Structures are given as C-alpha cells and as structure tokens.
C-alpha cells in the first residue's frame, strides 16, 4: 500500500507543519510566561505551598518586570540618541549642499583647488544682514553713527558675542561700473559689507533675500539668521535677548506676523501679479512676518539654501519667505517688540525699562525720513550703547 500525500493548506504548506508550529508556539509562550512572570508549572501547583515560596515567586516576577522596564528605558534612550544623531547628520548634509549652492550664488566662502573648504564655518549666535541699495549710502552712515558698532567694536562683537552684522548688497547690471567701485571703496573703509552674486533691483528683492540666506548659511554656522531693512532702528541687546528665548527650538520663524490684502490692481504699490493663486479677489495673504525685520533659525535657513532652486518667488519678498514655510513644521512666533513705532511709542517703553528690539513707522514701511531721524530715534528709544556688552545670551 503506497504512502498517501500529506494534506496541504494555504500556499502549499503541509497541515502537519502548521500543527507542529502551533504546538511549538504554545510551549514557547508558556516558557516566556514562566520566565518573565514566574507562573509555576501546572503539575507543581500546591494549594498548601508555604508563604515563603509564594513570596519568592512574587519577587522573581517583580524582578522580571523590573528587568523589562529597564530594558525598555535603555532602548528608548538609544532610540533618542540615534534620532539626535540622524538629525545632526541631516543638518550636516544640508549644510554641505548649501555650501556648494552658496558658492555658486557668489558666497564669499573660499574653496581650495581640490574642492575642500579652506576652513570650517565660524560658529556664531546670529547673523544680521542689513539689506541696502547703491542709492542708500546716507542711510548706511546714519546706522553706523547710531546702533551699529564700527571698526574694532564690530570685530569685538563677533568674537565676544557671536554677532555678525553686515550690509547686504549685490552688483549693478554693469559689473565693475561706477556703482560697484563706490561700494568697494566704502567696503575698504568700513569692512562691513556682504556682497552677493545678485543684480540689484527693486523687483528682485525676493531673489536677493533667497540668495542672502543661501550665502550666509554657507559662510557662518549661526543659530539664527536675520534680515532687516536699512531704515529700521535696532537695539542689539534686545534682539539678542529675544532670540535667546527661542534658541532650543529647531524651526522658528520670528517676526511681527501679519496678513495683508492681496492687491490685484496693476500700478499700485505691492501689486501681486499672481493674485489669482490666493483665491477670490479681495482675499488676504496667509500669515507671514512683515518684511522690515524677521529672524529664522538655522534649520529654516539651511532649508532655503538647499532648496533655493525650486522655491517660488512672489512679488513681495516677505510673502515669498512666508510661502516657503507653508506645509513645513515651523513655529511662527509673533514678536511685537520687533515692530514698535518711533517716538513717542518706543520712548515710553524705553523709559519703562523695556526697550523695543526694533522700531519703525508702519506708514513708511520703515522710519520716515530715516537719514534725518535715525539719530533722534536712537537717542530717545535706544537701550544704551553699552547694553549689548552687558547682556548675556
């Protein structure tokens, strides 16, 4: 009599194997329960067992639970450490990419012939880029004479406080022309410019802002990167104290948040050619920081630097920046000390011992007639020239 074929189930697996697997799983489960929970063998259960044996069983069970909890805790710590390491590696990779792109965009980062950076990026607290134009020399002088340290003081600020301050400007349409030579002469005297591979123009502000962050990330390893206009008054100590409160947060976007109307009519200031993307006529923009001054954390600046080639630019640079963070896990911080009015508002706050971080006139999108009024605002609303040196970050 021949052997019968074994009965199969599922995808051709013999039923006998399935039964053996189930039996093995059952006994394995019993062993695991015995090991960790101290469940006695059914054959050895004795209703008359001594209390000492029961206590021993309970202690073994408790020890088993303790071991498991300890292992879970250790595993959690390992996972957290790995997560932190992965995040660090991601930032380093993004930084390496940004250095490449930053150099392509005219970053002043020096590269050796073999492609290796000449030196590591300088680690600093924050980089403040003051956006300026060829026609704004008097504005720059008003800032140098008030809230921006000069010469050795500027260098000391970098070394002792980790604060980098530069006027940010690109090039004229005719490279090497009279406008560029004037900036080069000014740079030779003050050493406070950050030049971009960018052609200056009012309608190119979104592009300039994008290139600024890309180039700044490739040169300095900062906790924050700030953009400020050259007709705004700044109290550096207050700016530093404000940023320090958010230093531990990875993706922060700090400024005076607003949601202005989308202007569809041609010929008006701040006209948005792509108004139709924001819904029906009369709608408002998504919430974003006003363009006079805002700060973004390292991760966000690195994000811009890595993805700058695919980030869309709208007509207004503050709208463009806000749009780049839509859909990202970003914390928007509405910091009203960055948009105080000029005297008497900022003066009252200064007298009360709570100076503003930044002051300007909303009606002028900056200090009205800033060249003439910057000194007055500084005298009445300033925190004091020594404040920055006595402020800990």
From TrEMBL:
Species of provenance: Malus domestica
Keywords: Glycosyltransferase, Golgi apparatus, Manganese, Membrane, Signal-anchor, Transferase, Transmembrane, Transmembrane helix
Spans traversing the lipid bilayer: 15-37
Keyword Transmembrane: yes
Family: Belongs to the glycosyltransferase 31 family.
Membrane topology note: Single-pass type II membrane protein
Cofactor list: Mn(2+)
Highest taxon, organism lineage: Eukaryota
GO terms assigned for molecular function: galactosyltransferase activity
Protein name from the UniProt record: Hexosyltransferase
Domain DUF4094 residues, every copy: 15-99
């Amino acid at each position: 009599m021949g052997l019968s074929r074994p009965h199969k189930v599922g995808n051709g697996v013999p039923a006998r194997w399935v039964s053996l697997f189930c039996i093995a799983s059952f006994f394995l489960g019993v062993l695991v329960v015995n090991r960790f929970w101290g469940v006695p063998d059914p054959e050895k259960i004795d209703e008359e067992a001594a209390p000492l044996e029961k206590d021993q069983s309970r202690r073994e069970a408790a020890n088993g639970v303790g071991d498991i909890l300890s292992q879970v805790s250790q595993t959690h710590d390992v996972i957290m450490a790995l997560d932190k390491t992965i995040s660090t590696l991601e930032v380093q990779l993004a930084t390496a990419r940004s250095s490449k792109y930053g150099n392509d965009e005219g970053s002043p980062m020096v590269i050796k012939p073999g492609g290796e950076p000449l030196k590591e990026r300088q680690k600093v607290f924050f980089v403040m880029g003051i956006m300026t134009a060829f026609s704004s020399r008097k504005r720059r002088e008003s800032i140098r004479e008030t809230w921006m340290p000069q010469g050795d003081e500027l260098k000391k600020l970098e070394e002792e406080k980790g604060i980098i301050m530069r006027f940010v400007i690109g090039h004229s349409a005719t490279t090497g022309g009279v406008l560029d030579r004037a900036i080069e002469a000014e740079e030779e005297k003050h050493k406070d410019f950050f030049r971009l591979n960018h052609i200056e123009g009012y309608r190119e502000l979104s592009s300039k802002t994008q290139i600024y962050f890309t180039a700044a990330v490739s040169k300095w390893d900062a906790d924050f990167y700030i953009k400020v206009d050259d007709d705004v008054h700044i109290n550096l100590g207050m700016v530093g104290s404000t940023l320090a409160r958010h230093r531990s947060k990875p993706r922060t976007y700090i400024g005076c948040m607003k949601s202005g109307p989308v202007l569809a009519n041609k010929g008006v200031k701040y006209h948005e050619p792509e108004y139709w993307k924001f819904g029906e006529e009369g709608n408002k923009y998504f919430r974003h920081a006003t363009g006079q001054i805002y700060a973004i954390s390292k991760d966000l600046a690195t994000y811009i630097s890595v993805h700058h080639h695919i980030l869309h630019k709208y007509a207004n640079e503050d709208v463009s920046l806000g749009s780049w963070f839509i859909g990202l896990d970003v914390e928007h911080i509405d910091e009203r000390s960055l948009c105080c009015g000029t005297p008497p508002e900022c003066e009252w706050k200064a007298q009360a011992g709570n100076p503003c971080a930044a002051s300007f006139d909303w009606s002028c999108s900056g200090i009205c007639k800033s060249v003439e009024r910057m000194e007055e605002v500084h005298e009445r609303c300033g925190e004091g020239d020594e404040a920055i040196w006595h402020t800990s970050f």
